[in-house]
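Appendix C reproduces, verbatim, an entry submitted by the partner laboratory led by Prof. M.T., so that reviewers can inspect both the input and the predicted structure.
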Amino acid sequence: MQFQSQMNQMNNKTALVTGGAKGIGAAICRVLAENGYNVAINYNTSQIEAQALKAELSTSASVEIFKADVSLSNDVEKMFSEIEKNFGGVDILVNNAGIAEQALFTDITDEMWQRMIGTNLTGAFNCCRRALPFMISRKSGKIINIASMWGEVGASLEVHYSAAKAGLIGLTKALAKEEGLSGITVNAVSPGVVETDMLSSFTEDDKAALKEETPLNKIGSVNDIAQMVAFLASDKADFITGQVISVNGGYVI
């Protein structure tokens, strides 16, 4: 505990993790808290999980939870205003909030398309736009977008998801070029098959088939993704920007 307290004193940077209450987002929050960051946990519907995570992490880090639908710019504005009151600003932005859905392309409705793009892509746009003025003023900052291997190569039955994640990869690369002179890095972590709620609809046979298609012959853990995010958030990654770092066990090479 004393060591953790010293870590917190050494690192007064604030990290915002969108969709941080569960799954990959919660793992990211845990690792960043362990590394001494103040952690702002964003949630939309998972209030109980967010409160439990705050209680867990508050014993060793400064943690607050913030409700917002990141697809709505007004919600994002209110969230950032509250974060600034609590922590002063966002030094590390992790755009993790996302949804997944399987459907035939011909069955995708307008509502399904808008919801997918709104959460997975527009949400990142809204948060980047709101975070950047503070980062630019300080000539430093890290933006880490959680993409997907399907954004790199596309997935049958997940066209709208693949398109949203491909857009997020494009946003990552373009924004990295634009903000480099401001001392801000922008990167994407592209998970492969990871054991989260998104796999809840898959049968054990489905999971076994995915393992067989993965050269490392295993499904990833949320901590595999979180550790990469922590690296990109650290000063060890100061010369890395505009990159899509695949953490997929070799599924996509």
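The longest strand covers residues 184-191. Additional entries are available on request from the coordinating office.
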